Amino acid sequence: MTAIVTAENLSVVIGHAKVVDAATFRLARGTFTALVGPNGAGKTTLMRALAGLIPAEGTVTIEGRTLASMPGRERARTLAYLPQGAVFHWPLRVDALVALGRYPHGDALSSPTPDDRRAVEAALTATATAQFAARPVTTLSGGERARVALARALATQAPVLLADEPTVSLDARHQLVVMQLLQKAARNGAAVLTVVHDLTLAARFADRVLMMRGGRVVAEGDTASVLQPEWIAEVFGVEPAMLALDGVQLPLPRRPL
Amino acid sequence: MPGFPLRLTIALAALVPLLMLASLMVGAAGLSPVDALVALWSGEGPASIIARDIRLPRTLLAASIGATLGLSGAALQGLLRNPLAEPALFGAPQAAAAASSFVIAFGFLSATSTVVPLAGIAGALVSIGGLVAIAGRRASLTVILLAGLALASFAGAATALILNLAPNPFIALEVAFWLLGSLEDRSVDHLVISAPFLVASWIVLMLNARAFRALTLGEDAAASLGVDLFRTRLLVVVGVALGVGAAVAVAGSIGFVGLVAPHLVRRYADSDPAHVMLPAALAGAALLLAADISVRIIPAAIELKVGVVTALIGVPFFLAMIFSERRMLEGSPS
Description:
Distance between the termini of chain A: 36 Å
Largest interface: A-B, 40 and 27 residues
Structural class of chain B: mainly alpha
CATH topology of chain B: ABC transporter involved in vitamin B12 uptake, BtuC
Structural class of chain A: alpha/beta
Strand order of the largest sheet of chain A: 6-7-8-3-9-10
Helix content of chain B: over 70%
Oligomer: heterodimer
CATH superfamily of chain B: ABC transporter involved in vitamin B12 uptake, BtuC
């Protein structure tokens, strides 16, 4: 496993609480990693610290360079971040929103390059949002908006993609679509880290799983080795049923412990 | 880039010079379009004094102040991702008004003295300094807004105190009239004093246009795209304070232009906060020119104050627009 992102003793203190506590893990190219953990485990804070949005102790190295030493634009080209909930404050056209993914590639005076246009078109095509490229985003459904938000993150063509609960509040079909898209981004060579609450989805799509509780990374490894009934019971406080589907063991929460 | 409202921008860019010409023609002594241009060009005769010395500064001030207000409104709405944001939000115009009122009331100066705008600009700068000092390095937008609100209230109270303590009723009346906003009897000096601040604010605000577009995705996503939120907020606060502070210092309080100008053009720009800026500036210039022309056309014993007129004609216009867009606004989730 060739790590592109290495986090060592990453800690985030908010107020007096250590929300992320000495997290150490690696993300590899071409690998889809699911970040799982109960509410309040520090998953979102960990993602924001990785994205460089909040100050953190410890070191994050990306392609051999520390995150702290990267200028903002370079960090933004290396690391695409998709926050929770597809937020759009103005009814912009879909293509204009997706083009924002190219923001770190240009500056105030430059106009879009052929590379920018290709990246935007590829992202629109991949997410099947090209059909409403010219529509205001407010006219789209929740699932369509989630795809637009993902297209924006894909358009950056960053080697690292962080997505915070991209499947939340989506219907069954869109959950699968979004997970497939993230998996595909990983197959195309990106290191993808995604917060997922649905352990079944994580088991089906992720190559690796990071499990957090109380700010600490308590397990890291292949999906099958981390999503074991004992671990799930211990960390999530639920008794899981393990179902086999297409040769994969899927945990299904059966009852709270 | 899709969606730049090129036709609207060209139309507004053509409208503004036409309104400027009209502004040179209208007044106690009417001039024909040709006479106005000849008088402006030749520099001879009474018509030239009227066009060059009286109406030209007023016209240029109306255009540049209107543009500043429109641009400031568009920038603040972009920064705050809220169509209700307007230039008075951070307290700079109120501070400028308070400082200018003070020198009118206690400096025994006429409201059109050039000391008045200098004091106003100083007041606006002090208020920005205070805001930045209060907000600090890592302040959230909420903290900046609250600090701005506090400063605005304080400056408003100071202005009320000045009116309260004015040495005599005539001076209080002069301050009160000045506060209503007017471009009457402004000279080239006013233009020279305010122009550097207005132009600086245009540059500072326009440089952030792309950041406003990125902010459509929310602060976290924008920051992850490389937008320096602290720098952007600081530049917008400073840009608005410089521009609107100087505008208020020269012309008194002119409401509504900063709020309404971006709205007039937004739908033609596909709501893109970056593309809204230039048309909003032109629309602001056109609005203030039209208002300043109308105060000279409307027959009244005392010339109406332009700040009164911008609100009077702006509000029905605004309501009509809200009415026409009501269905769309109701249909969209918050």
